[in-house]
Amino acid sequence: MGRLKHGFAVLIIAVLVISGAARDDSSVVSTATPQGRLIVFDDVWETIQERYYDPSLNGINWQAKRTAFRPAAAKANSTHEFYEVLRQMIGSLKDAHTRVYSPDEKFDWWNPRFVTVGVTVREIEGVPTVIQVDPNSAASRTDIRPGDTITSVDGVPIANVIANRLENFGSRTDSVLRYRAVASLFEGPAGTPVTVGWTNRERKSKSAVLQRYWTQRRLGFTNQRKGKVAILRIDAFTQSVAWDFTKALPDVLDGAQAIVLDLRSNGGGDAEAMADVASLFLDDGINLGRFADRFGASFELQTYSKRLWRVPQLARIKLPLVVLTSESTSSAAEIMVAALQRKHRARVIGSVTCGCVLAIRNRHPLPDGGLLDVSEFDYRTAEGLRLEGNGIKPDKSVPLTRNDVYSRRDTVLEVAQNILNGRSR
Q1: Arithmetic mean of pLDDT, 147-160
Q2: Tens digits of per-residue pLDDT, 25-58?
Q3: C or N terminus of the chain, fewer CB within 10 Å?
């Protein structure tokens, strides 16, 4: 879940959590030896085989994957290389939720930490395009600017780089996998260099050597006012974000006549927290869908206003509502968008959502101190529709252009404001 200006977003995590944290029942095994690497490899492979929501593992011959990747895992020359082997095997599931983290990544869903070069890339008009440059990064001291197009990585033409990354997902790819491949163009170990080539607005070729480094995000919500329209952006659904959001609403909405709810950078979060926020906009007892695991256990989510309506001056919000979506709108955020759209409570503007709607029950600790997330629950809407791999189509599609990025123009937000102000349909 990326914090980006002007509502642009990059897929960093897509997560829907059902319960609990990781159990700390692992003993430390070193991946410095082939024996240690195989212990961790087997634990990952077996855990996915036993827990994955789909017993057929999306039609993949999981035993064949073990045979193909286990020798490479044993021969890996570093922890980073070993975990890349694991990620290639897991990538064949084409599942944004099932992921593995090495011990030094120490990934926290609610305060995501990740490696970056300070440049965020998204495919626009069929071309990998810079949409953000971190103002505190070394990249900001080069000539690279939002709107520039990436042409090469470490001297390899960008088309080849993308094709190589897509190979990790198997023979069949889709728009979500391509989105993930483009978003991860500069992945690599922290502290290592990468040579980035790009073309600027004047079509001049440029290049720079950038260092990969760790950075961390703080998730929350922001608000602003454009005339009588309140613009609310929620980065993720956590219990603290949901509560803070609810407490702030009376002041935020004072004098407002309409709302834009920006979920373009929302990669999901806690299912119950999402239901709390949805309860502010929908009647009680609305079915938000059903989760089911491979063993037949299932449960439903419903709106229930009493969970969060402890704020005396807050009533159910009935103001006109527009929701903004992008390819980064994922998981729990997609469930909320689907319900608001289905109940005709909001118009959805932007682009098709991620289609990443599975759920994790618990994080699995690995023998070396790493972590494995496994999708243990499938999800379907109240009507039985499956969002995984499909996403949600907006009521009005607004494609992003390079000119928009160069001019720092947020066309999606402009369209939403025009709709709420009665100047567009």
Answers
A1: 97
A2: 445 899 999 999 999 999 999 999 999 999 999 9
A3: C
| Mean pLDDT, residues 105-121 taken together | 82
Angle at which helices 271-278 and 239-252 cross, to 10°: 20
DSSP H or E segment with residue 261: strand 258-262
What distance in Å separates the CA atoms of residue 160 and residue 180, rounded to the nearest whole number? 15
* Owner of token pair 């978003």: 183
Burial of 104 by CB count in 10 Å (0-12 exposed, 13-18 middle, 19+ buried)?
middle
- What does the pLDDT read at residue 168? 64
Q: What is the mean pLDDT of the chain?
A: 89
**Nearest of 226, 220, 308, 219 to residue 260 by alpha carbon:** 226
Are 101 and 107 in contact by the 8 Å Cβ rule? The answer is: yes
Domains of the chain, first to last: 1-112+218-425 (3.90.226.10), 113-216 (2.30.42.10)
State in Å, rounded, how far the first CA of the chain is from the last one.
30
For 181, the enclosing helix (H) or strand (E) is helix 175-183
According to DSSP, the residues that pair with 252 across neighbouring strands are none
Least trusted range by pLDDT, from 94-108, 336-350, 382-396: 94-108
The string of DSSP letters for 86-120 reads HHHHHHTT--SS-EEE-TTT---TTS-EEEE-SEE
The secondary structure of 310-371 as a DSSP string is TSTT-----S-EEEEE-TT--THHHHHHHHHHHTTS-EEEES-------EES-PEEPTTS-E
- The pLDDT score that the predictor gives to residue 310 is 60
Q: By CB neighbour count within 10 A (0-12 exposed, 13-18 middle, 19+ buried), where does 11 fall? A: buried
Residue reference for tokens 């810079």: 130
Cα separations in angstroms, 247 against 73, 273, 311, 312, 328: 50, 14, 6, 10, 26
pTM: 0.88
CA distance 397 to 403: 17
Element (H, E) at 128: strand 127-133
Tokens of 217: 């995000």
Contact 393, 399 (CB under 8 A): no
